[in-house]
Design a protein that fits this description.
The complex is a heterodimer.
Chain A: E1 5-9, E2 12-16, H1 22-28, E3 52-55, E4 61-63, E5 74-76, H2 80-96, H3 111-118, E6 135-136, E7 142-145, H4 154-163, E8 168-171, E9 178-181, H5 198-202, E10 208-210, H6 223-231
Chain B: H1 6-20, E1 26-30, H2 33-37, H3 40-54, E2 59-63, E3 75-78, E4 84-87, H4 95-102, E5 113-117, E6 119-121, E7 126-128, H5 164-169, H6 174-182, H7 185-194, H8 207-216, E8 223-228, H9 237-244, H10 246-260, E9 264-269, H11 274-289, E10 305-310, H12 320-327, E11 351-355, H13 356-360, H14 362-368, H15 370-375, E12 384-391, E13 397-402, H16 407-414, E14 424-429, E15 435-438, H17 448-453, E16 462-467, H18 472-486, H19 492-510, H20 515-531, H21 535-539, H22 542-550, H23 552-561, H24 576-580, H25 587-595, H26 599-609, H27 613-619, H28 624-627, H29 639-651, H30 655-665, E17 674-678, H31 682-693, E18 697-701, H32 710-713, H33 722-734, E19 738-740, H34 751-757, E20 760-763, E21 769-770, E22 783-785, H35 786-794, E23 804-808, H36 812-823, E24 827-831, H37 843-851, E25 855-857, E26 860-867, E27 873-886, E28 892-904, E29 907-910, E30 914-915, H38 918-924, E31 948-950, H39 953-956, H40 961-980, E32 1011-1012, H41 1015-1018, E33 1026-1028, H42 1031-1039
Parallel strand pairs in B: 1-2, 8-9, 8-11, 9-10, 12-16, 17-18, 17-20, 18-19, 20-31, 22-29, 23-24, 23-29, 24-25
Antiparallel strand pairs in B: 1-3, 3-4, 4-5, 6-7, 12-13, 14-15, 14-16, 21-30, 26-27, 27-28, 32-33
The chains are: A alpha+beta, B alpha/beta.
Chain lengths: 235, 1051
C-alpha cells in the first residue's frame, strides 16, 4: 500500500493515491467535477476543458483530468469564473452543431443535456452554426448522427484502447473536425469494426445509438468501459 | 576529408580561409529566398557568365542574407587588402561596371554602394578584410544597421552556407571541439544556465534548465529536436538563419547532444522552406563527410547524428507536443502536459525541443563564456533577438537587437518610419499569438515580460508595422481567421470559441455588431485564453484582446458610427474617397454625372453632400487624394478641383437661380421645431443648412457682421474670393436660414435665453483665441497674432505691418499670413522649429509661398523678440535646433543647439495655433475638457447640457474647414434624429440613375492640375491664385476615376 497524499478540494481535505489525477482523486471521494471527454478506464486527453480547476499558487487554470495530485495541493473546483467558463463551453457545444433534445434518442440520458441543466444554460449567446451534417445509418446495429457529436473522442479511445480495433478517429481540423470510421469509409463498411457496440455505450450524447430506439429511449452503460479496464488490471 | 585530429581540423580551416580571403577578388551574391525573390539569381548568372567570358581571376560564391530585405539583392565585393563592400539593389546591368572597377581600385557606382566592412567579429573567429575607402560608411553607420548586435546572425550573408570549410574557417565547430576535449558536460550546462539564455521560440523558458532536465532523465535513448516549423505570418528569421548559416545550427545541437547525452537530433523544418531544406541537407551531408557528424565525431569517440524531417504544413505543429505527434506519424494535435517532453517525449523517450534561434546562441556562449553573453540585453532577458521588421515600414528586414531595446528604436531609427511617410499606428508583435502595441507605447522595451504585460508576446520575433491605412478591427479579424483555420479542433474553447469570435468580428467589420456583442466577444476571448489546451488556443485571443484594449474606439466606430476610418472594411464605405471625406461626399457619383454631361445633376449631388462646395473646392486639405486607388497607377484623381469646377459652373453663372429652385424642392415639410446655431462659420453653416433642408426653422447667431467665420476672416482673398463664398451663403439663406449678426451669445444673449427660445441649440463658435507663445518680447509693438492680422486684411483695415516680417509657425495660418504680408509688400521669413516635411500646412500652399518669395528658416526655434528703445520690434533671435529622438507622433523632436540666429525685422506674426475661448466655455456652464475643448458625446455630439450640441473646432481644437463641416453635418443628423425620432438623411437626395460600370481599361489621362497666376504677378494683388480646372480638363479628370463604388458588374 503506497503512502497517501493529502489534497484539499474545495476546502475539504481528502487522501489521494500518488499518481492519481485531481479528477480521479475527487471522484474517489465523491467530489464532483464536471467533465465530458474524461471517462474512467480510458486515457485522459484534456479536450473538453470542463474539468478546469483553480489550483492555489498556480496562475493558470489546470485540467483536473490530467493534472496529477501532489501533497498539499489545494483545489477550487467551482469558483464563479470556472462556472462562467463552463457555461460558455457548453453554450459553444450547443451552437456548434444541431442539438435538438426534443427529437433525440438520448434525451433525458444525455451527459451534455445534464451538464447544461446543471449549469443553467437556458439560452445560447452565440450565433448557431446550423451545419448540414450526415447521419451514418450504414451499420446494421448502430447509427452515428454527426449533428449530436461533440468530438469528445471517447468512442475513439474506447475502440482503440479497449477493443483494440481503432475504427474511429477524428479527421479534419478546427471547426471542420469530424469523427470518421476507417479513413472515411461508412461505418457499415468498416471491416475492422467488430460491432461490439462499446463506442455506443461510451458516447455521452445521442450521437451514437443503437438502432430501434425512439426519442428518450436510448440509455447507455458507460461504466462497462471502466469495468473492463479494471478487470484487466488497468492495462 | 575526415577530420580525426587537430592537424586535420587546422588544415580544413586553412583551406576555408583561402576561400574566404583568397588572393584574388571575391564577389558574393546574397542568395537567400529574399534575395532570389528580388532577382539575385539573375545577378549571380550575370556575374558568372561575364567572369567566364572575360576570363577574370575572380571568386564568385553564393552567400546567405545580410538582413536588409528592403534593399535586396545585396552583393559583397572584396578586393584583397581592402574593406569588404556591401552593394545594394544590384541588378544584372550593374555587373559590367562592378567588374570593370575591380582591377583599377575603383568603387562601384554610388547608387548601389551601401557600406563597407573593415573587419568582422564572427565571435568564434575574427576576419580582417582591410582598411580604406574613407568616404564609404561603415556597416554600422547605416541607419538600418546602427545599434544592431549580430550574435545569432554573426555569419549570415558573409560565408558560403554550402561550404563547411568556410564555416570552419571563421571558427566554426571549434566550440564543439572544445566541449569534446574538455569532457565536462555539467560545466557546459552550467555555462548555458549562467548565460540566462531563454528559448527564442517565444515562451522564454531557460534553455540551460531544459538541458539539465534532459541530462538528468534516465535511459540511453533521448532526443533533441530543433523546431524550425516557423509559421507566423510576417516572421521569417528562422528561414534566413538556416539558409545563411546551417552549420551553426548543427554545431549548437551537437554540443547539446554531447552534454545532455542525447542519442539523436531531429530538425523539424517547415516544408514551405525548400531552400532552407536544401541547404540543411547539404550541410548535414558535408558534416558527415568531414567527420563532424555521425560516428566518432572529430575523432573524439562521440556518436551523434542529425536527421531532418519536413513538416506537414500545420501551424499547430509548432507546438512541441503536436510536433512530436507529427514526428511519430500521427496527426499533429497537441496533448496535455504533464508529462512534459523532458519526461516523456518522442516515442515516449525524454526529449528536448528548442527553437532554431536558440541553437544559434550556443557556440558563441561556449566560446566566449556566459559573462560575455549577459553583457548584452536586459537583466532578465540576456542576449539578442532577431526580429523581422515588416509591414508599413520603410526599411524592412531582419534586425538583431539586444533584448530590452525600446520599440521606438526599431520603428523609427532602424525602420526609418512609415513607408510613404504615413503615420504609424501600431506594431503587432508575436504573430497570431501576439498583440498590437499602439504608437504611444513605443517607449516599451522589447523583452519577454514587458510585452506580456501589454497583452502581447515576443513570440518568434515577427514585428508587423501598421499605419493609418490598417483597420485594427480587421487586423484582429484576420488573425482570428488564421488561428481559427489552424486550430486542431481537439479542445472546445479553441475549436468553437475561435469560430464564434470570428463570427462576431465579421459582424463588426460589416457594421452589424452591437455593444453587447463586444462584451460577449471579450468574455469569450478570455475564456479561450484561460481554458484552451495548448499555446495556440491560449494565445490566439491576444490580437483581439489587445486591439479591444488599445483601440476600443475603432471597434466603437464600426458598431456605432458604422465607419471604418482606415477604409479597410469595404462594407462600411462606398469607396475609399468617400470614406476619407469628412463630409462623406459621394465622389464617384458627381464625377460620373459630370462625365455624362449632367452638370446640374452633378451640382445637386455635390451641394446636397456639401453646402460649401466652391469654398472647400479651393481650400480643403483633400484627404481623398491620399486614399485614391488611382494613385497605384499614376496619381490620384483631382476630385477637389472637379467639384470646385462643378460648383463654379453654377454659382458663377445664370444657372444659379434654377439650381436654387431645385435645391428648395428637396426641402422637407416644416416640422415646427426652432433651432439655434451659434457661430456662422463652416460648421454652423453646414449644420443650419441641413436642418433647414430637413424642415426646421433655423436661426444662426454670430458676433461678426457677416457669415463665413474663418472662411471669411482668416482665409485670404487670393485663396478664397469672397464673392464665391457670398453665393454659397446666399443659397443657405434662401433655404430659410435666418441670420442674427453682431450678437455675442453669452454676453448679449445668455445661453439660458437661447435654451428657452429653441428646441435645440448647436454651438460652433470655433477657435478665435490665439494660443500665445511664452516668448520674451511678445509685448513689443509690431508683434501681431495671425488671426487678427488676417482678419484686418480681409476687412481692408489698415494693417500695421512693416517691411521685414517674420512669421512664427508652420501651419496654414502661418503660410497664409506670410503670403498676405508678401502682398502688402513686405520681405517675409517663416521660422519653423522642425523641417519642411513636418509642417502641418497644405504642401501646395508651402510651395506657392516659396514661389512668391517667402523665405523659410527651418530648424529654428524662436527664443526672444528684440525691441528697440521705443518698444518696437527690431529683430528676432532663434536657436538653431537639430533633430533628436522620435516622439510619439513619429516626428523627430527638435533639440536646441548652442547656435543662435538673429534676424532683423520690424514685425513678427505669431501663428502658433488657436484655441477655444475659455471665457465662453466657463460662462456657458458646459463641461470643458482638460485641453480646453468642450466635452461632447463622441457619436451624438451632445454636450453635458440637455438639447445642447456642439461641434467644429470647439470640440476638436483648431482643425480644418472640411473636418469642421463634417461635424456640422453629423450634428444636424443627430439633432434631427433626436427631435423627430426618425432618420431622414438618406431621403435628402433625389434618386439619380447613372452608369454603374468601371472603365474597361484605366484612362490614359494623367492628373490635371489647375493653372496658376504667375508668382511675380500674384504678389501684386489679392486676385485668386488658382485658376481652376477648365471644363475640358475637369471632364478628362472624371474619366480617370476607377469607380471603386461599383461592387459587382454584370458580364
Amino acid at each position: 500500500m503506497t503512502e497517501k497524499v493529502k489534497v484539499r478540494i474545495d476546502g475539504q481535505v481528502i487522501a489521494a493515491t500518488p499518481g492519481q489525477t485531481i479528477l480521479q482523486a475527487a471522484r474517489d471521494n465523491d467530489k464532483y467535477i464536471p467533465a465530458l471527454c474524461y471517462m474512467e478506464g480510458l486515457s485522459a486527453v484534456g479536450a473538453c476543458r470542463l474539468c478546469m480547476v483553480e489550483v492555489s499558487g498556480v496562475a493558470r487554470l489546470l485540467p483536473a483530468c490530467t493534472t496529477p495530485v501532489q501533497e498539499g495541493l489545494a483545489v477550487n473546483t467551482s469558483s464563479p469564473q470556472l462556472q462562467s467558463y463552463r457555461k460558455i463551453a457548453l453554450e459553444l457545444l450547443f451552437a456548434e452543431r444541431n442539438h435538438v433534445c426534443a427529437v433525440c434518442v438520448s434525451s433525458g440520458h444525455c451527459e451534455l443535456q445534464t451538464l447544461a441543466q446543471e449549469h443553467g444554460v437556458t439560452y445560447v449567446r452565440y450565433p448557431y452554426n446550423f451545419p448540414k451534417l450526415e447521419v451514418d445509418t450504414t451499420h446494421p446495429k448502430f447509427v452515428l448522427d454527426h449533428n449530436r457529436c461533440i468530438l469528445c473522442s471517447r468512442c475513439v479511445r474506447t475502440c482503440a484502447e479497449i477493443e483494440g480495433a481503432h475504427v474511429w478517429d477524428v479527421a479534419g481540423r478546427g471547426i471542420q473536425s469530424r469523427l470518421v470510421s476507417e479513413l472515411k469509409r461508412p461505418w457499415g463498411e468498416a471491416t475492422s469494426c467488430t460491432s461490439c457496440g462499446k463506442c455506443v455505450q461510451a458516447c455521452p450524447t445521442g450521437a451514437m445509438a443503437e438502432k430501434g430506439f425512439g426519442v428518450e429511449e436510448m440509455t447507455k452503460k458507460p461504466a462497462v468501459v471502466g469495468r473492463l479496464t479494471s478487470m484487466r488490471g488497468g492495462r | 576529408m575526415m577530420i580525426k585530429d587537430f592537424a586535420a581540423f587546422s588544415a580544413v580551416r586553412e583551406a576555408g580561409l583561402a576561400k574566404l580571403l583568397p588572393g584574388r577578388p571575391r564577389i558574393a551574391v546574397g542568395m537567400g529566398t529574399c534575395g532570389s525573390g528580388n532577382g539575385a539569381e539573375a545577378v549571380f548568372h550575370a556575374f558568372s557568365s561575364e567572369i567566364d567570358a572575360r576570363g577574370l581571376a575572380v571568386q564568385l560564391v553564393p552567400v546567405g542574407c545580410f538582413g536588409f530585405c528592403a534593399e535586396e539583392p545585396l552583393v559583397n565585393v572584396w578586393v584583397p587588402g581592402h574593406p569588404l563592400l556591401i552593394l545594394h539593389r544590384v541588378q544584372p546591368n550593374h555587373v559590367d561596371e562592378i567588374l570593370n572597377g575591380l582591377g583599377h581600385d575603383q568603387l562601384p557606382p554610388a547608387e548601389i554602394l551601401l557600406c563597407k566592412i573593415e573587419e568582422w567579429d564572427h565571435l568564434t573567429g575574427h576576419v580582417k578584410y582591410g582598411t580604406g575607402y574613407a568616404d564609404v560608411p561603415r556597416w554600422n553607420e547605416v541607419p538600418f544597421f546602427e545599434g544592431q548586435s549580430k550574435i545569432v546572425l554573426r555569419n549570415c550573408g558573409l560565408i558560403n552556407p554550402d561550404d563547411i570549410e568556410e564555416y570552419i574557417a571563421i571558427g566554426g565547430y571549434q566550440a564543439l571541439y572544445k566541449v569534446l576535449i574538455d569532457q565536462n558536460p555539467t560545466a557546459v550546462i552550467e555555462q548555458v544556465k549562467a548565460a540566462k539564455l531563454r528559448g527564442r521560440g517565444g515562451a522564454g523558458f531557460l534553455t540551460g534548465s531544459k538541458w539539465e532536465f534532459l541530462a538528468k532523465a534516465p535511459g540511453p535513448e533521448k532526443y533533441l529536436i530543433c523546431n524550425a516549423d516557423e509559421g507566423d505570418p510576417g516572421a521569417y528569421m528562422n528561414r534566413n538563419e538556416i539558409e545563411s548559416d546551417p552549420h551553426s545550427l548543427l554545431e549548437g545541437m551537437m554540443i547539446a547532444g554531447y552534454v545532455t547525452g542525447a542519442s539523436k537530433g531531429i530538425i523539424y523544418v517547415r516544408a514551405e522552406y525548400p531552400l532552407a531544406i536544401l541547404r540543411l541537407e547539404r550541410a548535414i551531408a558535408q558534416a558527415r563527410a568531414y567527420g563532424v557528424l555521425g560516428e566518432n565525431v572529430l575523432g573524439r569517440g562521440f556518436d551523434f547524428d542529425i536527421e531532418m524531417v519536413e513538416g506537414a504544413g500545420a501551424f499547430v505543429c509548432g507546438e512541441e507536443t503536436a510536433l512530436i505527434a507529427s514526428l511519430e506519424n500521427m496527426s499533429g494535435r497537441p496533448r496535455p502536459r504533464p508529462p512534459f517532453p523532458a519526461q516523456k517525449g518522442l516515442y515516449g523517450k525524454p526529449t528536448n525541443i528548442n527553437n532554431v534561434e536558440t541553437w544559434y546562441n550556443i557556440a558563441p556562449i561556449v566560446s566566449k563564456g556566459p559573462a560575455w553573453f549577459t553583457e548584452t540585453g536586459s537583466a532578465k532577458s540576456a542576449g539578442t533577438k532577431v526580429f523581422s521588421l515588416v509591414g508599413k515600414i520603410k526599411n524592412s528586414g531582419l534586425v538583431e537587437m539586444p533584448l530590452g531595446t525600446p520599440l521606438a528604436r526599431f520603428i523609427y531609427d532602424i525602420g526609418g518610419g512609415g513607408s510613404g511617410g504615413r503615420d504609424i499606428k501600431a506594431v503587432q508583435t508575436g504573430g497570431p499569438s501576439g498583440g498590437c502595441i499602439p504608437a504611444d507605447m513605443f517607449d516599451t522595451p522589447v523583452d519577454y515580460e514587458t510585452l506580456q504585460q501589454l497583452g502581447s508576446i515576443m513570440g518568434s520575433g515577427g514585428m508587423v508595422v501598421m499605419d493609418e491605412d490598417n483597420c485594427m478591427v480587421d487586423v484582429a479579424r484576420y488573425f482570428i481567421e488564421f488561428t481559427h483555420s489552424e486550430s486542431c479542433g481537439k479542445c472546445i474553447p479553441c475549436r468553437v470559441g475561435l469560430d464564434k469570435s470570428l463570427q462576431i468580428l465579421n459582424n463588426c467589420t460589416l457594421g452589424t455588431a452591437t455593444h453587447a456583442d463586444l462584451e460577449t466577444l471579450d468574455e469569450l476571448c478570455r475564456m479561450v485564453r484561460d481554458t484552451s489546451l495548448c499555446a495556440l488556443g491560449t494565445s490566439a485571443p491576444n490580437p483581439v484582446l489587445t486591439s479591444m484594449r488599445h483601440f476600443r474606439h475603432e471597434f466603437e466606430d464600426h458598431i456605432v458610427a458604422k465607419r471604418c476610418r482606415a477604409g479597410v472594411c469595404e462594407d462600411l464605405a462606398l469607396s475609399p474617397c468617400e470614406n476619407s471625406c469628412p463630409l462623406h461626399m459621394n465622389i464617384p457619383r458627381f464625377l460620373e454625372l459630370y462625365k455624362e454631361g449632367r452638370v446640374e445633376d452633378a451640382f445637386l449631388s455635390v451641394i446636397l453632400d456639401n453646402p460649401l462646395p466652391a469654398s472647400t473646392g479651393r481650400v480643403c486639405q483633400h484627404p481623398c487624394d491620399n486614399r485614391c486607388r488611382r494613385a497605384a497607377i499614376d496619381e490620384p484623381v483631382n476630385m477637389r478641383d472637379v467639384h470646385r469646377r462643378i460648383a463654379d459652373e453654377v454659382f458663377l453663372s445664370d444657372k444659379f437661380e434654377g439650381m436654387v429652385a431645385r435645391v428648395l424642392k428637396q426641402k422637407f415639410e416644416p416640422t415646427g421645431h426652432q433651432i439655434a446655431v451659434v457661430g456662422a462659420g463652416p460648421t454652423g453653416l453646414t449644420c443650419a443648412y441641413y436642418l433647414a433642408l430637413l424642415g426646421h426653422d433655423v436661426t444662426i447667431y454670430d458676433s461678426r457682421p457677416a457669415a463665413g467665420g474663418m472662411l471669411r476672416y482668416a482665409l485670404p482673398e487670393y485663396r478664397l474670393p469672397k464673392a464665391v463664398l457670398d453665393k454659397e451663403i446666399e443659397l443657405i439663406e434662401r433655404l430659410g436660414v435666418k441670420f442674427q449678426f453682431n450678437v455675442n451669445v453669452g454676453e448679449d444673449l445668455t445661453l439660458n435665453d437661447v435654451a428657452h427660445q429653441y428646441d435645440a441649440v448647436f454651438l460652433a463658435i470655433g477657435t478665435w483665441k490665439e494660443a500665445w507663445v511664452y516668448l520674451p518680447g511678445t509685448e513689443l509693438t509690431g508683434v501681431i497674432p495671425a488671426l487678427p492680422f488676417l482678419e484686418a486684411v480681409s476687412r481692408d483695415d489698415k494693417v500695421p505691418v512693416g517691411k521685414n516680417v517674420v512669421v512664427i509657425g508652420g501651419g496654414n495660418a502661418a503660410v497664409d499670413s506670410a503670403r498676405t504680408a508678401r502682398r502688402l509688400g513686405a520681405d517675409v521669413t517663416i521660422v519653423y522649429r522642425r523641417e519642411r516635411k513636418d509642417m502641418p500646412a497644405i504642401p501646395e500652399e508651402i510651395e506657392a509661398a516659396e514661389h512668391e518669395g517667402v523665405k523659410f528658416a527651418y530648424l529654428a526655434a524662436p527664443h526672444r523678440i528684440v525691441g528697440d528703445k521705443d518698444g518696437r520690434v527690431c529683430a528676432i533671435e532663434a536657436v538653431r535646433t537639430k533633430l533628436g529622438e522620435f516622439d510619439t507622433s513619429g516626428r523627430r523632436r527638435p533639440v536646441p543647439t548652442d547656435e543662435v540666429i538673429r534676424m532683423k525685422c520690424d514685425s513678427v506674426i505669431l501663428a502658433v495655433g488657436e484655441k477655444v475661448d475659455p471665457d465662453f466655455c466657463a460662462a456657458s456652464g458646459l463641461t470643458v475638457k482638460e485641453n480646453g475643448t468642450l466635452e461632447v458625446e463622441r457619436y451624438s455630439l451632445e454636450t453635458s447640457r440637455d438639447r445642447f450640441y456642439a461641434g467644429g473646432d470647439l470640440i476638436t481644437g483648431a482643425s480644418n474647414v472640411s473636418n469642421a463641416m463634417g461635424i456640422g453635418k453629423k450634428a444636424a443628423r443627430n439633432i434631427h434624429k433626436r427631435l423627430m425620432d426618425l432618420e431622414h438623411f438618406p431621403n435628402l437626395l433625389p434618386a439619380f440613375t447613372y452608369e454603374m460600370k468601371p472603365p474597361e481599361t484605366p484612362s490614359e489621362f494623367s492628373r490635371h492640375v489647375p493653372g496658376e497666376v504667375p508668382a511675380a504677378q500674384r504678389v501684386q494683388s489679392y486676385a485668386e491664385v488658382s485658376l481652376g480646372l477648365t471644363a475640358a480638363a475637369a471632364l478628362e479628370e472624371t474619366f480617370r476615376c476607377l469607380r471603386c463604388d461599383v461592387r459587382s458588374v454584370e458580364r
